Amino acid sequence: MTRPELILLPGLLCDAALWAPQRDGLNDVADIRIGDLTQTDSIAAMAARVLADAPERFALAGLSMGGYVAFEIMRRAPARVTRLALLDTSARPDAPERLQQRRDLIRLAQTGEFRGVTPRLLPQWVHPENMKDPELVATVTAMTQRVGRDVFIRQQTAIMGRPDSRPGLVQIRVPTLVLCGRQDQATPVELAREIAADIPNARLEVIEQCGHLSTLEKPAAVNRALRQWLAA
């Protein structure tokens, strides 16, 4: 049996380390590659780059900003995607107050205070109990610093300009997993429920004691859900 090609799309300020537990834990059932979302400042351009490098047919999973790019890929090339996983993401555009928060963080980064961005984001991204795990905190902090200020500004600009993906949810016809940490503050569970309700036959998986970075916070639970999704 041919192994599926699986493309994993990282979130804001994240690189391949976000998906390291999945790359290592699922490599027996899929050929895995991790998309580069660092080079452009629009969701459309990110999607175009992923598609240009992708095989003709592939499974697709995206977390947070990676989910926004996944929605764009589904609009552009739905026939190329064999199955879809949307982790800790939203189909909605930003509300005005969220846009202002993003502008404030961009200004902070532009004024030489980029190192102050991560401490502000970590409590929104990681469950309070998981914040007590020094290895996890160190992994996330190192990842954000590797990605860096310039990419952060490009990615925030892309996120702020993203379209409303809700109208297209009903048109998604591939096996779809919608997964969210129970205590996700950045993209709360109700947003995952909204996505799952509108995609025909989507499966919703809520991970307990977990925040926004589910792939790192609860890798075993996420891998179980993804393994089941790949086998569906």
Percentage of helical residues?
Answer: 40-55%
Rounded to the nearest angstrom, the radius of gyration is: 16 Å
Global geometry: globular
Low-confidence stretches: none
Query: What is the name of the CATH superfamily?
Result: Alpha/Beta hydrolase fold, catalytic domain
Find the CATH topology: Rossmann fold
Counting helices, strands and paired strands, the structural category is alpha/beta
Strand tally is 6
Helix run count: 9
- At CATH's second level, what is the architecture? 3-Layer(aba) Sandwich
Name of the CATH first level: Alpha Beta
The count of domains is: 1
How are the strands of the largest sheet arranged? 2-1-3-4-5-6
The first-to-last residue Cα distance is 14 Å
Tell me, rounded to a whole number, the average pLDDT: 96
What is the H-and-E element order? Answer: EHEHEHEHHHEHEHH
Which band does the percent of strand residues land in? Answer: 5-15%
Major sheet: 6 strands, parallel
Structure description:
46% of the residues lie in helices and 14% in strands. The chain is an alpha/beta fold and 232 residues long. It has one domain: 3-Layer(aba) Sandwich (Rossmann fold), CATH 3.40.50.1820. Strands 2-1-3-4-5-6 form a six-stranded parallel β-sheet, with helices on both faces. Strand 5 (176-181), helix 7 and strand 6 (203-207) form a beta-alpha-beta unit. The protein is globular. The chain starts with a strand and ends with a helix.
